[in-house]
Specification:
Elements lengths: L11 H27 L5 E2 L2 E2 L4 H22 L7 H25 L13 H4 L1
Antiparallel strand pairs: 1-2
Helix pairs in contact: 1-2, 1-3, 2-3
């Protein structure tokens, strides 16, 4: 009688390696989110709207890619769920949601109406 291997189960050392890679990817994703928030001051200078900087675009796109990579690596790690795996999935989903909002905010229209830092141009006109 032949027994077949289940193709969805990943051997122990490989599973741990995938979990470590997922954790590293999640940490990189969190660092990219912090960097993106710190670059928020790039949009205005002397009350003139400059638009998002290139580094804001890079961090806004790289963050969700790293979150998705962490999520995929964690989910593909096998059927057995450990506490670390569940926590990593939750963290990756949370990071992905916040980073998708950050990506939206990069492409949103000029919040000040194009005339300064106050955003009151429409009310004063």
């Amino acid at each position: 009688m032949m027994t077949g291997m289940n193709s969805t189960v990943v051997p122990g050392p490989v599973r741990r390696g995938m979990l470590v890679a997922a954790a590293v990817s999640a940490v990189i994703s969190a660092v990219l989110l912090v960097a993106h928030v710190s670059f928020d001051g790039d949009t205005f200078r002397h009350c003139a709207y400059l638009g998002p900087s290139t580094r804001m675009y890079v961090t806004a796109w790289a963050g969700p890619v790293c979150s998705l990579a962490a999520l995929v690596l964690t989910v593909r790690g096998g059927q057995r769920r450990t506490g670390a795996g569940v926590a990593l999935v939750c963290l990756s989903v949370l990071l992905l949601a916040v980073q998708l909002l950050a990506l939206y905010w990069v492409y949103r229209p000029d919040p000040s109406g194009g005339t300064g830092c106050s955003g009151l141009a429409a009310l004063l006109a």
